[in-house]
Records
---
Amino acid sequence: MKVTMAHGSGGASTSELIENIFAKHFKNEYLDRMEDSAVVPGSERLAVTTDSFVVTPYFFPGGDIGRLSVCGTVNDLLMSGAKPKYITCGCILEEGMDLDDLDKIIESMAATAKEAGVTVVTGDTKVVEKRGDFGGIMINTSGVGFMPEGIALSPAGCKDGDALIVSGNLGDHHAAILSGRMNIKNNIQSDNAPLTEMVSGLIEQHIDVHAMRDVTRGGLGTVLHEFAGASDCEIHLYQDKLPVSPEVRDFCKMLGLDPVYMGNEGKMICVVNGKNADKALSIIRASKYGEQAAIIGEVKKSDNNGVILHTAIGGERLIGPLYGEGLPRIC
Amino acid sequence: MSKLEEIKEQLKNYDGEDLRFMEVCGTHTAAISENGIPNLLSPKIHLISGPGCPVCVTVTAVIDKLTELSLTENTTVLTFGDLIRVKGSKMSLADARAAGGSVEMLYSPMDAVKMAKNNPDRNYVFAAIGFETTTPVYAMVLENAIEADVHNLKLLTSLKTMPEVIRWVCKNTNNVDGFIAPGHVSVITGSDLFKELSEETGLPFAVAGFEGAGLLTAIYALVKMKGHSGIKNLYKSAVSEKGNEEAAKAIDKFFEPCDASWRGMGMIPGSGMRLKAEYAEYDAGSYGLDEDHMPPGCSCSRVLTGEISPDECPLFGKKCTPEDAHGACMVSTEGSCYNYYVSGRKKR
């Protein structure tokens, strides 16, 4: 069975689609009411975010667009220090998309939401005419999280003596997607994952976290460049401490890509008070998806803000933001 | 102390006359920046980037032809990544695409044959840009196209070869004391290619791979050989004296040497490759694309020959940045200006 324009009519076919796929997988007390908006319990301070997902192919090694659409939004909430509570699901489907594929994607979304501790409280579906380059499905998710008292994280929060911790291997998602597009056979899997457990661990155990960011498009280099600018400090990174899996390292070498600028969907960079560094590292390492976490650098007060990479052979270079599209080299 | 540590110490403390070594290959330019090599060297050792980034040395007439083709009805231009953002005299392929042109970026060259086969009513033009390294890939594409009986795929060639441009640099500039010979090119051609050049110019050549340690060793070899001709192959794992004969055969089957026009340097006799006459039906109009148009103030020609350092160009980092590049050297990830800009390199 395929998605047809009738599935977007708002009539019987739409109801059937929602009932058979979305409601079946997302089932919960708020969504099941099927009202115009979900009415949910709240908190005094809320974190709110939204993100859209257009990845092709929609199934990729290690994940799919459904899982990705939950992880992206949940991780954005977590990076503000919030406890993710609710998300929404807006799907734009392309006429002709396989309904079995849609079922798998929504099933995966529901499983990821459960893992991440969020409830999908409301949703919407539209169908667009077949246009060839659409990729079958695009998903938008908005998320709401509750802010714990006293938490205020900001890219401007980095201070002299802070330690930088990255939660695991860099570049996995980027390399997995690129491998798929380039038809390169390897075992690289996307790292798309919700970071709920590691972030709650840090907050519950009162680690003095100054800034956090999930390392997505633009990679670590772009995030740290922004942190250094916002905090007016110098960030020192050590190349030989950056965790990169051997497969991704070889993949990058082959294509002339730099893991520092590769995107992930389940990794974060966390800037913590240097005194808390070892404890923070052990919390992250003990949590799901944090086994490969490493301390990769430190923050220093300086008149020149910027990111300096100390290379493996002892050289130094500046790390700016990612320029252009992060494409493979020509030769 | 390990051998590498010893080399590092010697290079850091070198106190003889000023030495200027040119890395000819764009991938070396990128590797030197990525490894932060310049600040491991004494201020008396200068690394200058030569004309070895394929996108950087492509003249605007080629880009103009490609943009024109992309805007032609029923025609798609296929290209590798970097070239898309390089400006022609009016627009880049990215601009052409935004204006309704058909431009597709290829990840794998063989996709060109697949696309042409699957869409027999559409014309495809593959932007065949590159050096000795990439030319065998285009030969393979043609081989496959012929085998698959595909006739709606053509090449727009702007293929260059190394020896003549190195000769040109030696003749026209007087400021190079040795060359880090291009590793990838040497894999195909063999290190013998540089033997003749070394004897002719009296300068040392070191063939290097792309790891930091290998590059430092090559620079150290050049310091040791200064003032003498000679060739040192430090990339023996991949480079033999005679090169890859299969690749050479594939090139010979489809291509022949020709004069080529280089961005900023003009026409250099015998420095290019073109399709042989018997394969003319696969050429998309590459002949005579020699004109080059430099935007006002752009110093690409002086940068490409190592006459000035990228940061000495008046546009560098001001009007010309990777986000809004005036010259190709700021677009390509192998370009010298791009590498100076993103890694914060400065003239020493």
---
Amino acid sequence: MYVYDELDWAFLEQRVAEFRDQVRRRLAGELSEDEFKLLRLLNGVYLQLHAYMLRIGIPYGTLSSAQLRALAHVARHYDRGYGHFTTRQNIQFHWIKLEQLPDAMEYLARARLHGIQTSGNSIRNVTTDQWAGATPDEIEDPRIWAEIVRQHTTLHPEFTFLPRKFKIAVTAAAHDRAAVKIHDIGLRLHRNAAGKTGFEVSVGGGLGRIPYLAQTIRPFLPKRDLLSYIEAILRVYNQHGRRDNIHKARIKILVHHIGVEQFTREVEAEWQAIKDGPLALEPDTVTEIAARFRYPDYAALPDNPEALVAGRLRDRGFAAWFKNSVNRHKIPGYAIVTLSLKPEGGTPGDATAEQMEAIADLADRYSFGEIRVGHEQNLVLPHVPQRDLLTLWRALEAIGVAIPNVGLVSDIIACPGLDYCSLANARSIPVAQELTRRFRDLDLARKLGRLHINISGCINACGHHHVGHIGLLGVEKNGEEYYQVTIGGRSDEEAQLGTLIGPAVPYAQVADVVEDIAAAYLELRERPEELFIDTVKRLGVEPFRERVYAARPVG
Amino acid sequence: MPLVQSGRIVEDRFVRWLSDAPVPEDAAVLLPHARFLADPAGLLRRPAPTGVIWPNDRKVSELAPHVDRLALIALVFPVFKDGRAFSQARILREQYGFGGELRATGQVLRDQFLFMLRAGFDAFEVTKPADAAAFAETVRRYSVFYQPTGDGRATARKARLHRAPALAPAVLEETLQEG
């Protein structure tokens, strides 16, 4: 956990006071809705179909138990008793009243949570691996760098009115759980041939109407240059990104329009002018930030303790959950535990106030008071002693978050869709709910293995459909909800955009189509270990297209 | 539109010279960029101060040869949300060393004042009179700044490095042990 100092505190209080004044000016008519819109968006406040929505950023996905309780409090007192975790490690409340927003924000600020730059054409919440600091496959904790970038980009005087939103993600692990290739800037911390650590910088990834994967513009950037290099990229984008067409305003369009070589030249030229200025990160600065990350006081514990081994032998339910939801920790005797927020018939990523409070208590008891949020819309207890796993599992079962479907077909990523969002063309949540019913049989889900379904209710792609192993995109055709189906997408270190398999299918057929694709995969795979994504890679989309559309003439 | 400088509403000493009429020798004028670029040397040779209105889609590098003699550069925010001039301002101040008046024009609202100050603006044609009146109070809202810019305000980073070691958080030790 990053510990706020008096400066971070003062800043946040000042921000809340400023927003309170902006709301007052809006209510008094001193600000037009147009003017207010820009200001509220910079504080995470959207106007949706039914009400204002408040999006709270969870920097690099790390929450303390006290913060999770604060979120539960807001869910209960200002919303309808639940919150919605998003694909960018944020949480959204969909039913907040404008007059109550400043109070809700002040309450959250006391737990040092806020909505600054969680929307608007600004630099958004910096995201990273939800297993950061716990996983054995990282070279160092990427959250220190995410925090350095977070501070630098918070109310940046030059870059708060960009052409469009701007997302930065950092990973430091061999396996990319932060989806850096679909970000405006992706940072991959790695070690070069000389043994030095630095960043591979990629730029121009993003989904939406015109999806692109980020392209590497610098294979190795020394750590000292991180901020100056980001500043150079943003300066080129702020001046040259398109502002005449919202759909062509992301940096990915600029990169493709002028070409990655030209873009890189411009960034490098700008960077040369500023790299040795005040943005250069001296070791003292990094040490100072790193020193304010609190790490657990781990005990010396053995791996695979007796209690765990016996539990797995005795209880099949526990054994299945352990296999699915528990991962290796870098410290012997500990484990990383994923809590599925994907129950049958539920809304992906939703948690009730009661669940949040119970999870906060369990985090205090079993995970050093720490909780993580992942982009797959699940929660994580990052530091659980293995000897406590059986007890923890029972407690998680009791609150409905121990469904062993993590990474499986029913672990669906979905945006809020037409049920909440004014941009959507089609519903996402009911499609996800129906699919969790179709794939309720966990034996079938396990047989299908790792299979990610991502659903977006419109072209803005908040449900990351382009990078779902199976992606569903809601579109509107003659006033009806239809879904385009893509397969073969992925957002990890082998990131790939999915391929459309054929004409869009109507709402009533979309779950059938997904079942057909799953059935086709079971027939087509070479062996049970070949994952869906690998079968698609080997065979292409054609055999799937044939099977789906043979029985179903649509158009 | 009130002009704010040094936190106070002031008289504009420049005349916006938008017609094709010859520029008088003895008047402080603010010229459209095309007019200025047609004869920069001639205009800057006049005894009176010269200013230019610079559009936000032209590179400010074109002004680099003139920054020493220009008295005023007016940058444009056509709408509140168009932030290009923030970059132009910082480049002019921090890379070309422009020391004259840097004026924000267009849709200039209270909620941008501090960003503009930090980017190097020191004069503001404020859209709403009430905002102009609230200038001094508005720019005092924040005491903590995370980014170093050319305005010289001390950043959080600096403050942290300079604070007494005794105040360094106790977690430092834990972290070091963590290795």
---
Amino acid sequence: MAEKLIEMFSYPFMVRAILVGSLVSLCSALLGVSLVLKRYSMIGDGLSHVGFGALAIATAMNAAPLAVAIPIVILAAVLLLRISGNSKIKGDAAIALISTGALAVGVMVISMTTGMNTDVYNYMFGSILAMSSGDVELSIALSAAVLILYVIFYNKIFAITFDETFAQATGVKANLYNTLIAVLTAVTIVLGMRMMGALLISSLIIFPALTSMRVCKTFKSVIINSAIVSVICLFVGISISYLCATPAGASVVIVNMGALLVYTIAGGVKSGALRKK
Amino acid sequence: MALIKCEDLSIAYEGQTVVHDLSFEVGQADYLCIVGENGSGKSTLVKSLLGLKSPVKGCITLGDGLKQNEIGYLPQQNDVQKDFPASVYEVVLSGRLNSRGFRPFYTAADKEKARENMELLGIRDLEKQCFRDLSGGQKQRVLLARALCATKKLLLLDEPVTGLDPIVTQEFYQLINEINKRSGIAVVMVSHDIESTMEYASHILHLQETALFFGRAGEYKNSEVGKAFLKGGEYHG
């Protein structure tokens, strides 16, 4: 077992997968807490479908996948936020519209060019082989940006997540920070989706936040705990994927489900113990 | 000079005028209650006072050194907060955000101010508790402490007693009255509860798209509008 794990690090593609994966899961855990609490969980799912459509178009045009996907998904993220803020079309319906629409476009483009093949399968469910050294550099830059912005704007992010109207009334530019969160989420999703898969990437946003909220009572502890749980789950998931030859994305999600279960039980025991006192 | 002076104010919401030709003012240490039926434009007026909605006509002037971002606002509760994992201390401290500007972190003075306000409202012992585990009355105290952190001069309360039981409601009114009398902070309160309103308010603004009445609470009781509305209030109360 230990030997196998050491062996795992001797493959450059595994090192890249673990590095990019850890950084992406760190970023998505931080952003996820705000998104889940603001009832924007499905934005992550919607954006990954848009990302799928964009990657399909990029492949058809023989363009660099990230260069096409990142701007398109950022655009979609800003658009989704605008629609959610406007009550004419409800946020959840708007997200369903955009995500299925983008998925359909992606499938059409692929079927007209290369046909449904392993590429499509990899986009949908992810591939551990997908990470290049360019991705490693980009993910380091992204996670540095997310971490720095998160620390600097932590108090403002707390304020707009807890009570947007009050925050605005005290002079916080809530729209600016919402857009910032959406843009960072978009980049995180595009980076992570080729490894985790378009259908599974939103789990990285939703699971860690929900898991930590079972036990933690303060915003700060939820954030820190989410980040730690997310990175650990990713590492365990990838290791399982390597040892048992299971798909990487699905393995990570299964480990996240396990963590949620453990935390739910721990949370139940903790509040039960408090009640007894 | 008045803290807030509204002149010939008209506000539109999605193209429809909801408030028109409204004039009133709030002076230092006043206790103004805004009453009126549902849909009379109260919430829209609150948004405009906070600077979140600009009027289509007329103007709101803030005076006496009151800055736009220094109104202590107590909003109606939203459903995000029902399961929000945040400690009481974190919530109260977030009221100090307007004193930060572009500087990212709270100072020791901010933290001290947050503790003082928790002490004042008798919630210091809840400091480490999770906001979502509190009772309705405790939650309102926490949000009031946050509002006090944000202001030195004016509290703006939007239906603060909705969903509270009668005893807690009375306690909450007394608390606000004490703050108003002791620290001289002006109070603007939107309320349905006309009877309790009359007990504490110094001024009344009766809103029905425009001001049906604006003046001292004593005069309101004897006015035609006031008589009719108070009678209605008794029937429902």
